[in-house]
TrEMBL record:
The keyword ATP-binding applies. Keywords: ATP-binding, Helicase, Hydrolase, Nucleotide-binding. PANTHER family: SNF2/RAD54 HELICASE FAMILY. Residues 239-398 form the Helicase ATP-binding domain. Gene3D superfamilies: P-loop containing nucleotide triphosphate hydrolases, Tandem AAA-ATPase domain. Residues 510-664 form the Helicase C-terminal domain. This is Superfamily II DNA/RNA helicase.
């Protein structure tokens, strides 16, 4: 029971509810008692549940929440009426958070961070329960012995905030030690700055993550290349992430040698550990390029391309090699075989190929249990941030929260999280000996007949789209995009779908003139188009002008591609015609100094890949990029949309703070308004 007495003090005279504590001198002046205040004190006591006894008042000792309320509210009310004196045993039932402060220590333990909590005066086996109360934002916690620990101090409130931030990362907790994935290290450091003690090993790790250029790793002997300074940094970055069992995205701009940096890393790992078992997954057209580059730069690495029919692929996977090279499609088909292999390195080349997490290929890749995973992509984001989530699910599962929570993260937060795990350099900043690109838009006018066809189709589309509400627009989005593609084909040449059309094409005539002028100035050209039938038309037109061409289709076998590229770089023929989607990746066409983009692509990242075929290491001339745009058509609006999409990439990967944009319903409606008077 809590025993309570009230003493009414008037100078040296004390009247008390307990006669044994009264002090009334035999001789004393007359006392004018404040009976109203005395009755008020008695009333408050009784309102708080105390029952009157012969010597004062009492009530049962409260527990839990009621005990916390007694110390934090009831005593407060009584203090308004006078001084309060608490007995020692009663005082010990309440632990003030100011005297029982939390202490946090952070250290690395294998692939985990140990975030340890210690609370002054609290048994370690009870710390977990205190932390649970903090995570629930409770004001107090009741200990096993009935004591109440107040959690409303500034220190405990800061700890509560930290736990809230770590909540989604906590893997397990036991006796005050919480396991958090090691890849959350920099976030933990930011969240606990000034509140925690960090172990020497943890501080070394966070330093390495923020200063990969200083990581202790030597370029391996036997690499047949002189790595540039920035390539050495990239190599050390790969080594550092691998050392801590992290994954990463090498996102250098096209042409900066991502392949060489990766091969150097794998060779180093083989030399240090006595062997590697690596799988390189690449677009089918690049698999043989990888094998050639490995033989060229690191002949001591044994590699094999896994391709052909099922039996051939199975035999390839049985070979005793360091590196298996396969395509995304083949890996998906053979995923059960790869699960049986003891693979410790996974390299995803042109990783934007699996930007959709729902595809079977992405699911197959996620099912592989591989310790070291890296992605190579000059464009890790092409359209939206979900692509980045999908990529990290493959290289560092669990790094990001689930997709729903991820979508609620700010752009700044995502950029901060990925910074140590994405390495992005561009040509402007690291490659002084690479000529500058000069980009020019060439506008052409539609011929009269071409304009009639264009306006007829445009008007038809406008009428259909203007009559649609938002729901109908969404339902018909694919057919609308198909209609836009039809308009783009008209801008190229109406013969792409009108067999009897004979009215000419303004853009085709312009590009023929430009190519002839370029030939006269000894320029060598790559010409890209999305439409293979357009390339066939251009091939015929140039042949009539006596201009020889190579023509790379999507169906061109990988070995033929390599031979065509080598011949063109050696000076054969004047123009290389390439399907935009077929030839956007992996080609090293430094024999060219002029790139013509005959038709614009919705996605500027695809065009950047095409332009990068010529603007690469080894180029000794200035490279010009010519974009062919039909004036007053949807191509003008498309060019504007491309600039907006480029900002998406820069915003998250390169740190610019602009609003993300995608092609919205408003954008499409705006495209169709181009040309209205």
């Amino acid at each position: 029971m809590i025993e309570l007495r009230i003493d009414y003090v008037y100078g040296n005279i004390i009247f008390s509810s307990d006669p044994a504590h009264q002090k009334i001198p035999d001789v004393h002046p007359e006392v004018l008692r404040d009976y109203e205040r005395e009755r008020q004190a008695q009333a408050v006591v009784e309102q708080l549940g105390f029952k009157q006894t012969e010597r004062g008042w009492n009530k049962p000792i409260p527990k839990g929440e009621e005990l916390y309320r007694f110390f934090n509210q009831e005593l407060y009310y009584m203090r308004q009426l006078g001084e309060i004196y608490l007995g020692k045993k009663l005082r010990e039932l309440y632990l003030d958070g100011q005297q029982h402060k939390p202490h946090i220590n952070v250290s690395e333990s294998g692939s985990w961070l140990d975030v340890s909590f210690d609370i002054t005066g609290i048994k370690q086996n009870e710390v977990d329960d205190v932390l649970q109360s903090l995570m629930k934002n409770d004001d107090y916690h009741t200990l096993e012995n009935g004591q109440v620990l107040s959690l409303d101090s500034e220190e405990f409130q800061e700890t509560s905030k930290v736990l809230s931030q770590l909540r989604d990362s906590i893997h397990s907790a036991n006796e005050g030690v919480m396991k958090v994935p090691l890849n959350q290290g920099l976030q933990v450091q930011d969240q606990l700055a000034g509140q925690a003690h960090f172990s020497e090993g943890f501080q070394e790790m966070t330093y390495d993550l923020t200063h990969p250029e200083n990581f202790s790793a030597q370029v391996p002997e036997g690499i047949h290349a002189q790595l540039r300074d920035y390539q050495v940094v990239g190599f050390r970055w790969l080594k550092m992430l691998s050392y801590y069992q992290f994954g990463g995205v090498l996102a250098d701009e096209m042409g900066l040698g991502k392949t060489l940096q990766t091969i150097s890393f794998l060779l180093s790992e083989k030399q240090e550990k006595g062997g590697v078992q690596a799988v390189i997954v690449a677009p089918a057209s690049l698999t043989f390029n990888w094998q050639q580059e490995i033989k060229r730069f690191a002949p001591s690495l044994d590699s094999i391309v896994v391709s052909g029919n099922k039996n051939t692929r199975e035999n390839s996977l049985k070979q005793d090699v360091d590196i298996w090279i396969t395509s995304y499609a083949s890996l998906r088909q053979d995923i059960d075989d790869y699960r049986q292999l003891d693979i410790n390195y996974l390299i995803l080349d042109e990783a934007q190929m699996v930007k959709n997490s729902a595809t079977k290929t992405a699911q197959a890749l996620r099912s592989l249990k591989i310790e070291h995973r890296f992605a190579l992509s000059g464009t890790p984001i092409e359209n939206n941030l979900d692509e980045l989530w999908s990529l990290f699910q493959m290289i560092m599962p669990g790094f990001f929260p689930n997709k729903q929570l991820y979508r609620n993260l700010s752009q700044d937060k995502i950029a901060s999280m990925i910074r140590p795990f994405i390495l992005r350099r561009d040509k402007q900043t690291v490659l002084q000996d690479l000529p500058e690109k000069l980009e020019t838009n060439y506008y052409s006018a539609l011929t009269d007949e071409q304009k009639k066809v264009y306006l007829a189709y445009l008007e038809q589309m406008r009428e259909e789209v203007s009559a649609m509400d938002e729901a109908e627009f969404k339902k018909n989005r694919m057919s609308i995009l198909a209609g836009l593609t039809r308009l783009r084909q008209i801008c190229c040449d109406p013969r792409l779908f009108l067999e009897d059309y004979q009215g000419g094409s303004g853009k085709l005539e312009q590009v023929k003139d430009l190519i002839q002028a370029a030939k006269e100035n000894n320029r060598r050209i790559l010409l890209f188009s999305q439409f293979t039938s357009m390339l066939s038309i251009i091939e015929e037109e140039l042949d009539e002008l006596g201009i020889e061409t190579f023509y790379l289709r999507g169906s061109t076998p990988p070995q033929d591609r390599i031979e065509m590229v080598d011949e063109f770089n050696a000076g054969e023929r004047d123009v290389f015609l390439i399907s935009l989607k077929a030839g956007g990746t992996g080609l090293n066409l430094t024999g060219a100094d002029t790139v013509i983009l005959y038709d614009l692509w919705w996605n500027p990242a695809v065009e950047e890949q095409a332009a990068g075929r010529a603007h690469r290491i080894g180029q000794e001339k200035n490279v010009e990029i010519w974009r062919m745009i039909a004036e007053g058509t949807i191509e003008e609006r498309m060019n504007y949309l491309q600039q907006e999409k480029k900002e998406l990439f820069k915003n998250v990967i390169e740190g610019n703070e602009t609003q993300l944009q995608q092609m919205t319903e408003a954008d499409i409606r705006s495209i169709l308004s181009i040309g209205e008077s």
